[in-house]
Amino acid sequence: MEGIPAKARNLQMNLLLGRLYRITKHNRSAIACYKDCLRHCPYIFEAITALAELGCSAKDIVSLFPQTPMRSGRPLSDCLDSSRWLQRYVEAFCCIASNDYTGGLEVFTELLQRFPNNVHILLEVAKVEAVIGKNDDAIMNFEKARSIDPYVVTYMDEYAMLLKLKSDYIKLNRLVFDLLNIDPIRPEVSVALSVLWETKDDRRALTYAEKSIQVDERHVPGYIVKGYLLLATNRPEAAVAAFRGAQELRPDLRSYQGLVRSYLALSKLKEALSAARDFVKAMPHSAKATKLVGDVYASHSGSRDKAKKYYESALRLEPGFLEAALALAELHKVEGRLDDALSLLSRYLKDCTDDSLHVKLAQVYATKNMLQAALSHYQSALRLNPQNEAAKKGLERLEKQMKGLDPDAPEDDEENDVDDADIDQDD
C-alpha cells in the first residue's frame, strides 16, 4: 500500500491504509490517511470515529470537509451550517473519545430527534448509556434498534452484558441464538457467547472471550469480558494485562474499574490508587471516577475516613448515584453507624427499583437485629431479581437467625463429613 504514491491513492486505498496503520500503532500515519479520506468525502463515518479516538479535535475534523460548491451552487459548508448535523455528529464522537459521556449523550440525543428511528444513532446512544450505567435506558434503545433492524450485530455484545446484569437469561439465550444465525464469525457474537457461558462454565466463557480478540484484536469488549472472567477465576495478574489491553485501545469506565479491582485483588494498593487517580484526571467531574478512588481507600481499614470523603464527594457530583450510596452505607455499617446507613439508603427507595438497594437495606436491618424488616427487603430484592445470589444467601442466614440458630455454624452434612473422616482415621 505504501508503494502507491499519496496523490494516486483513492478513497478506498486511504481507508484501508488508515486501518492498517492503526492496527500496527502507527497513529500519526493513520491520522494522515483518515484526514485524506474526509478531504475526499465528509461522510466517511469510520474516518470521523477514528480521528476522534486518535485525539483530533472536532474543529480540526470539520475543517477537513470539502468546500467545493454543491449542485445547487451553494458551498457544502453553507449546507452544513443550515443543518449542522454532521458537525454535531463529529462533536458527539469527540466528546466520547475525551470521556465526556454526558456531553456525547446530549448531542446524540439531539441527533436522534432530528433522525428518529435511525439505527446507527440509536446504537450509539444505547452504548453510551450502557457505559455510564443507565442500564434500563440502554436496554430499551438496544431493543428498539433490534425491532427496526433484526439483523443488526453492532454493539450486541454490550446488550448481552446488560441482559446478564439484569439476569434476564431468556432474552440473553434468544439474542445469542439470533446472532449465531446472522453472522457467527463477528467478534460481538463471541463476546455474547462468553457472557452466556459465564454462569455455566468459566473456562468455556474465557475461550469465547479470547476468540473475539483473535477475530478482531481491536475489539474492546472482548478484553473487558476477558478481564472480568480472569478476576472471577482468581487470576488477577492476567486480568491486569486484559484491562491494560482495553485501555490501550480505548480507555473507559469499565477498564479503569477492572484495573483497580485487579490491583486490589493483588494487594497492590499503590498501583490501584494510581489507576483510580488516572481515571479522575481523565474524567475530573465524574462521580464514578471519584467513587473509584473511594473504593481503594475503603479497602484499607486505616484510610476509611478518606474513603468516606470521596463517596460523599461522588454523591455531591451525582446525587442519584446509587453505587456510591451503597458503598458509603457499607462503610457506615462496618463502622457501626447503622442509623446513618439506613437514613442514607432510605432516600433512594422512592425512585429506585434496584435489587442491590434492598439487599443492602436487608443487611443493615439484620445487623440491627430488626429481622422482620430485613426479611421484607430480601423478599423485595428477589421479586426484582430472582437470580440475586446475595439475596438468596442473606435470606438463608436470616431464616436461621429467626429460628434462633447460629447462621455461621457448619451445616449438619459438613459435621457428618468430619465425623466420617475421624472414623476412617481410627480404622
Describe the structure.
- This protein is 73% helix and 0% strand.
- It has 25 helices and no strands.
- The radius of gyration is 25 Å and the shape is elongated.
Sheet with the most strands, sense and barrel status: none
Overall body shape: elongated
- Element string (H = helix, E = strand): HHHHHHHHHHHHHHHHHHHHHHHHH
Give the helix proportion (percent range).
Answer: over 70%
Helix count, DSSP H or I runs of 4 or more residues: 25
Which segments are poorly predicted (pLDDT under 50) over 5 or more consecutive residues? Answer: 414-427
Which secondary-structure class do the elements indicate? mainly alpha
- Say how many strands there are: 0
**Rg measurement, Å:** 25 Å
List the helices and strands and how they pair.
Layout lengths: L10 H13 L3 H14 L4 H9 L4 H5 L13 H8 L1 H13 L3 H14 L4 H14 L2 H14 L7 H10 L3 H14 L4 H11 L4 H14 L4 H13 L3 H14 L3 H13 L3 H14 L4 H12 L5 H14 L4 H13 L3 H9 L8 H13 L3 H14 L4 H14 L9 H15 L1
Helix pairs in contact: 1-2, 2-3, 3-6, 6-7, 7-8, 8-9, 9-10, 10-11, 10-12, 11-12, 12-13, 13-14, 14-15, 14-16, 15-16, 16-17, 16-18, 17-18, 18-19, 18-20, 19-20, 20-21, 20-22, 21-22, 22-23, 22-24, 23-24
